[in-house]
Automatic annotation (TrEMBL):
Similarity comment: Belongs to the MlaE permease family.
Subcellular localization(s) per the UniProt record: Cell inner membrane
Pfam families: MlaE, STAS_2
Biological source species: Martelella mediterranea
STAS domain segment(s): 9-101
Cellular component annotations (GO), alphabetically ordered: ATP-binding cassette (ABC) transporter complex
Transmembrane segments: 139-157, 177-195, 322-342, 362-383
GO MF term list: phospholipid transporter activity
Protein's UniProt keywords contain Transmembrane helix: yes
Protein's name according to its UniProt entry: Phospholipid/cholesterol/gamma-HCH transport system permease protein
Topological relation to the membrane, as annotated: Multi-pass membrane protein
Function per UniProt: Could be part of an ABC transporter complex.
């Protein structure tokens, strides 16, 4: 005979004529569930010794029962089945009978979870595939945004509702005019740093004058437009994503569609056109600022006067250096506008999503801008430009 007691709850196993009799008594509730469960597990060996036969489960002594207790009664039945006995319930009160009817005959089997794949395909190929699919999807949507530029230009010329020069002028002020101070200051410092480092290294060979060639060609062909595009991506690109993303969160874009306006034409086109105008102009400002910073540094550091600097710059730099740098600006402006608008349109309904998309916008824009700059460099080298 074995007994478990927890809050007057007990399980007693007694021999009977055709098998065993299991007496349940006390409060079979969640508070006694642990002790009763342990006692039931320890009684499994005694149930198996009884062999084939009947097992009468007497519930007449149960004073209180809840859902947990009803499940324990089902476990007692299941333990009897496992031992080869045929269980039957007796002495149930109306309360116990109602609960036992509501409880299934057996515990539901847990759904089998697929085995976690830890192989090469799961860890390497799957992320590559997902990234490739996402990139192809972004490229497809980006081409659609590029087409929106021409649609917007047509709507602007035909004076269709939703597209006007006031919106373009406002965006041009935000992306262009207000960016002049930071672009000029950054380029002035970068030009001075390049000049100082170049003059320091060239001084070992007595060729400080060639620092003008270094700064002029490097700034006009590469650094000017590249650093300007990076600054615009961080400043204006993030602002575009945040603005469009906030409008998506407030469902203003859906409201535009309901009113019959095209969100791409109303929101994306003015920002894209403004960047197309602003970025080349900012590049010009950056180039002049960098050359001014370089001229000041070499005058103080190496004794190269401003007149000498201009004369050497005129000899070292030709029109191809200016054109090769400025030709990149419209492409980079389109990239920044398209990527920023795409990420803004992906924003969900939470502030966390907005932050993630703003970060992704800046990172993707800078990455693609650098890649495009490298493609231009390879192209110019192949055509000897």
């Amino acid at each position: 005979m074995q007994t478990a007691d927890e809050s007057n709850a007990s399980l007693t196993i007694e021999p009977a004529d055709a098998g065993l009799k299991l007496r349940l008594s006390g409060a079979w509730t969640v508070f006694s569930a642990r002790a009763l469960d342990e006692e039931l597990e320890s009684s499994a060996s005694e149930l198996k010794k009884a062999g084939n036969g009947k097992a009468e489960i007497d519930l007449s002594g149960v004073s209180e029962v809840d859902t947990a207790g009803a499940w324990l009664v089902r476990r007692v039945e299941y333990a009897c089945h496992e031992a080869g006995l045929k269980p039957s319930l007796s002495g149930m009160s109306d309360r116990v009978a109602e609960l036992m009817e509501a409880i299934p005959d057996a515990l539901p089997e847990p759904e089998a979870k697929p085995a976690a794949e830890t192989g090469f395909s799961k860890r390497v190929l799957e992320p590559i595939g997902k990234s490739g699919y996402a990139a192809a999807h972004d490229l497809s949507n980006g081409l659609g945004f590029f087409g929106a530029l021409f649609v917007g230009l047509y709507d602007l010329v035909t004076r269709k509702a939703g597209v006007n020069m006031a919106a373009v002028a406002s965006q041009l002020d935000h992306a262009g005019v207000r960016a002049v101070p930071i672009i000029a200051l950054m380029s002035f410092l970068v030009g001075g740093i390049i000049a100082q480092q170049g003059a320091f290294q060239l001084s070992y060979f007595g060729a400080e004058l060639f620092v003008v060639d270094l700064v002029g060609i490097l700034q006009l062909r590469e650094i000017g437009v590249l650093l300007t595009a990076i600054m615009v991506a961080g400043r204006s690109g993030s602002a575009i994503t945040a603005e469009i993303g906030a409008m998506r969160m407030r469902e203003e874009i859906d409201a535009l569609r309901v009113m019959g306006f095209d969100p791409i034409a109303v929101l994306v086109f003015p920002r894209m056109l403004a960047l197309l105008i602003a970025l080349p102009l900012l590049t010009i400002v950056a180039n002049f600022s960098a050359l001014a910073g370089a001229a000041l540094v070499v005058d103080v550091y190496s004794g190269i006067t401003f007149q000498t600097f201009l004369q050497r710059l005129n000899e070292a730099v030709d029109m191809s250096s200016v054109v090769s740098g400025m030709a990149k600006a419209p492409f980079m402006a389109l990239i920044i506008a398209i990527v920023a608008s795409l990420e803004g349109m992906k924003v969900g309904g939470s502030a966390e999503s907005l932050g993630q998309k703003v970060t992704a916008s800046v990172v993707k824009s800078i990455f693609v801008v650098i890649v495009v700059d490298g493609i231009f460099a390879i192209f110019y080298a192949s055509v000897d430009f």
